[in-house]
Each structure stands twice: as structure tokens, then as C-alpha cells.
Amino acid sequence: MLEKEPEFDANNPLHPWKHDGEIWLTKLLFQNGNISHSTADEFLGAFANGTITMADGPVQFQNSREMLKLLDIASENDPVGSNAVNVYSV
Fold first, then answer.
1. What single string gives the DSSP state of each residue in the chain?
2. Rg, the chain, Cα only
3. Where are the domains of the chain?
4. What is the pLDDT of residues 13-36, one digit of tens each?
């Protein structure tokens, strides 16, 4: 659960995301998914309760509101962060 802004980690170039999988998931749901927030919330809830897992590690956001908060943090803290979801490809 994303309760506060993730702490900056100089060893993590993906900040505020924890791993590539979170960026992929954010891009899928926010940019490419063309789905409602309630459907995204249901999907993210499956990650939160362990029904779906990601090989890269756990997902720190449990719903679309928390996912969008990470996008806001990225756009405020990192000049490239606001474009990270747009340019990242898996």
C-alpha cells in the first residue's frame, strides 16, 4: 500500500517506481489499457491480495488512485519522470 511518498533511492533510477514491472503495469493501465478506473482497481486489487503476482516483485500501489499518485510524484520530482511512462517499452 502506498501510504506516503516513496523515499528517494540513489541506487534506483526508476524512482518512484520500485522495478520495471511497475512501470510496465502503469503504462498498460494508464496509457494503453483504455479501461475504467474501477476495472483498473479490480486488477490492481488482485496484485494487492496475491491473486496475481509479478516476477519483478510486489506492486506498491493497490488502486488507480495510488498509481496516479506515483505519476504525480514522478512529474514533480524528476524532469524525465513525467515522460517515463510514455517512453518506456518492455
1. ---SPPPP-TT-TTTTSSSHHHHHHHIIIIII----HHHHHHHHHHHHTTSS--TT---S--SHHHHHHHHHHHHHH-TTHHHHHHH---
2. 12
3. 20-87
4. 787 888 999 999 999 998 888 899
Count of residues for the chain? 90
CB contact at 8 A, 88 and 27: yes
Residue (of 82, 90, 55, 78) closest to 9 by Cα position? 78
Cell of 46: 488482485
**CA–CA gap between residue 65 and residue 2 (Å, rounded):** 10
* Cα dihedral: 89, 40, 12, 2 (round 10): 170
Query: pTM (2 decimals)?
Result: 0.71
